[in-house]
Amino acid sequence: MKKFIPWLLAVGFLLQTACIGADDAPQADILERTEIVMHSEEDEQEDYTPERPAAEDDILPSDAEPAATEPADTAQKNPQNEAASSAPPPAQKPPAPQAEKPPVTPQQKPETPPAKPADTTPEKKPEPQQTAKPQTPPKEPAAKPAAKQGEVRAVWFSYFEYASLLTGKNEAAFTQNVRTAFQNVANLGLNTVIVQVRPFADAVYQSEYFPWSYVVTGEEGQAPNFDPLKIMVKEAHNQGLSIEAWINPYRVRNGNYKNQLCKENVVWDYLKSSDAIEYNGGIYFNPASERAQQLIVNGVREIVKKYDVDGIHFDDYFYPTTDAAFDKASYSDYKNNGGKLTLGDWRRENVNQLVKTVYKAIKEEDPNVIFGISPQGNMDNNYNQQFIDVKLWVSQPGYVDYICPQIYFGFENDTCPYEKTVQNWNNLIGGSDIDLYIGLAPFKIGSDDTWAGAGKQEWKTADNILGRMVQTARKENHYQGFVLFRYDSMLHPVQGIKQQMEKELNQLKEILN
Fold this sequence. Notes:
Elements: H1 5-23, H2 27-31, E1 152-157, H3 162-165, H4 171-187, E2 192-198, H5 214-217, H6 228-238, E3 242-247, E4 251-253, H7 267-272, E5 276-279, E6 282-285, H8 290-306, E7 311-314, H9 328-336, H10 343-365, E8 370-373, H11 379-384, H12 390-393, E9 402-403, H13 418-428, E10 435-440, H14 458-461, H15 465-473, E11 479-484, H16 487-491, H17 498-512
Parallel strand pairs: 1-2, 1-11, 2-3, 3-7, 7-8, 8-9, 9-10, 10-11
Antiparallel strand pairs: 4-6, 5-6
Helix pairs in contact: 4-6, 8-10, 15-17
């Protein structure tokens, strides 16, 4: 048996070494994953119905105040939205006092007992005195992250909401619809609305550059007898809400949007000069075109100059495809004139120029108006599919005031788990004056998360996922707010999830208060 002992010891040593090596594997190698890429031509918003479910009432937290009915012009306007700033964090409990150690009693030498001749039993040694251990104080529960001063608590109003709020309505009906919607927003504890004002190279306001949107009257180019954006700005400020104008800079039509361009639309002329491009059933302004860029900038200037908006907001619609054929002619012109950049870098530089020029134009018109962009949550998609250099924007001044990635991933998402993704975005920001907002996805509540892997059921079983997401984001140093997509998803949810959504909103309101 003895001759096997050295062999057994050697085997044991090798096994131990192998386990240690496994534990020391680089964490980055373990965590690195590649997200499933969606088709770049797919417009995710088209998956959502614009109609309100007729059987569902407005959902509000159980203690929400009823909607006010006084005329809007009697309410106090608050453009700075001071009332919406979050309350200071509650005072922290003092740490529990540490238990004092009791004094240690010196051990006494035992006295020698008198001899007992008849007793031959060995004498027992006295047991030493035990020193009392100090009591471990109970642990304080971990404090929940408090809201930062001025936390932005926003909701997106997309052009889908206009189907019930605006399309075909007269001024009085639209005003009352918007007033009620914005009161609902305020009652939830939110303080900002981001309203889509140029979804398809059109406008929900009186514009010198773009035709009236079909979402206003039902037909592109047909004017109403009122200005919807003017009303939305007034109603938002009456409720103490900030309001940002949301613009799609390049999209004119996508493959799912079949409405005819009206004859007054400038895009007809831009198509003739290649300043706009037809591709895969859609129409897009050419990002390489200086003329197209100037039109977009002029449109932004117009909004800031004419309307008392608090911000301008771009979403995640930039280059519609990775296909080199999309802008082959423009790239060939660039190369023939001595250009050295690769196609990808050239495209990113085109977007950079637009973003920088828009930022400059906004600040020239009103330095107090902020500018932010809401890219996809997946950084690789942004850089390599939409050709946007987010890292540049958040590392140098002159591009954006905030970045709002659409982190529509659950905590249990296999590819992009929520907490880790938030941390990655926070760490990307290099400019101290650039804020991080988090785009959240109440539209997923009650549904399968198709690409989430093990987290597929998370949005169906959770009833406080939005609140947890806000509290998680508050831990990051650049975090300054969140935006919820979208209003109807929360207030007019699809059939079958009303109770779950109501729980979510009540839990969210609790942490906002």
